[in-house]
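Archive entry: two folds, one per protein. Generate the first.
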Amino acid sequence: MMIFDASSRDNCELKDKIQYSLQSLTLMNNPEFIEAANFLSKSIEKKSLNTNDKIIYLYRTVTGRTPNK
């Protein structure tokens, strides 16, 4: 949790503001995330689903729950 400047989970501390956009860019450009995104896109290409079903499948795969409409 040091990467995200997180406070201890033992108590509730006021956390200093940090650069969330920099963290997002770092994670998005991380080779592991790029590889996972490529794997996910290739796995959905193999399925013969319509666009709506593909979106639902991807949402369930990534979040582990059914999307709300």
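Generate the second and append.
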Amino acid sequence: FNSTLSGLAVGRCWDRATLLLEEMRQGPITPNVISYNTTISSFVDWEGDFWPYALECLELMRLDELQPDLVSFNTALRAAGARGAWQASLALME
């Protein structure tokens, strides 16, 4: 599943990546930190204001009792920073 998520992220198919992640969360396959990091990466360099979904993924990780790692935070920062959401970026660093 992580390979599929990676392909979706590279293909900038954030909507499909988030659907697959949600299916994983509801089904027998449990997403791990890599699953979330890959999904978060699908929101980087996107032309719309999709960076809040990156922050939502961080929250979902916590709900799933996973600890976001350095890659999680850096990727979410890149997604928010690319769209000029500096206040959200600062909040992540606190």
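Annotation attached to the second fold: Residues 2-93 form one domain. Helices lie at 2-10, 14-26, 33-41, 51-63, 70-82, 86-93.
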